[in-house]
Amino acid sequence: MKQNITLSIDKEILxxxxxxxxxxxxxxxxxxxxxxxxxxRDVDHYEQSRRRxxxxxxxxxHFGGQPVSRDELHER
Length: 76
Fold this sequence. Notes:
Distance between the termini: 73 Å
Oligomer: single chain
């Protein structure tokens, strides 16, 4: 479902935005929609990656080594 919104944009910015949209053969509305969708996707992707990384940190990492006793570490 789509919903219209109203934006207030500085006139100079809107003029430049119209030129950018025309160069891309699209409308200002579509250009803004695509940018906003990308922002939401980026944030969603970041949050998913963040949660995945935190789960990995919680589970820990095993690099294949064997535990060493304190005495072995400090042998002289």
